[in-house]
Amino acid sequence: MINMEHKKVIIFGGGQVGERKATLFVKYAPTTLISRSFTQGIHDLNRQGLELIKISTLSDNEILDYINGAFIVIPATSDRDLNLRIADIAHSNRCLVNSVDGLDDLAVPSIIQRGDITLSISTQGASPALSKFIRLKIEETIPDEAEFEDMVRLLKKMREILKTEVTTQKDRASILWDILEDENVWKALDGSYEVAFDIARKHVE
């Protein structure tokens, strides 16, 4: 998990793969996509903050200029040789590379997000389709409900209380686990955060 708020992401390629990568990264980081043409989906992402640069040619010096200051570079063009050239230049400039032809420096996982809860599924780049399949299966068992967000909020508050009232880490961890296993806390969250918090608070008394 990396805070990407100020970390630059550069994507080369305006097809479906580039669109998929941009859809993820534009949510978290300043993202630029460079290509000769763009899908309609990429044009839509432009309105959400994705920077687009249209090119006709791409020399090594131009690649170097585009990736200057980048944290992650994603070669996602339809030209495999060009992708390898971009990756080599990026590596030479200490950028992380997410390759569409293999794992390289990092793999982009499938993500499930419920408020402050984030689950990621990865096959280490071997099968993005399987990652998506697993994500869809897990989403069926984790409803998009407010209880999860409220439980994160409740446990965060309880951790602050425990740090001042309970001496050892082992005891604090045990109490937090007891709260998580308390069905009455979960049932109360369905109706009132305050009632759920009061029930959780009794685990410290």
Task: Describe this protein with a few key phrases.
9 helices, alpha/beta, elongated, single chain, five-stranded parallel sheet, Double Stranded RNA Binding Domain, Rossmann fold, two-stranded antiparallel sheet
Outline the structure in words.
With 205 residues, the chain is of the alpha/beta class. It has 3 domains: 8-108, 3-Layer(aba) Sandwich (Rossmann fold); 109-143, Double Stranded RNA Binding Domain; 146-204. It has helices spanning 16-25, 40-46, 60-67, 80-92, 128-141, 146-165, 169-181, 183-189, 193-201, and strands at residues 8-12, 31-35, 51-54, 70-75, 96-97, 110-114, 117-121. Strands 3-2-1-4-5 form a 5-stranded parallel β-sheet. Strands 6-7 form a two-stranded antiparallel sheet. Strand 1 (8-12), helix 1 (16-25) and strand 2 (31-35) form a beta-alpha-beta unit. Helix 6 runs antiparallel to helix 7.
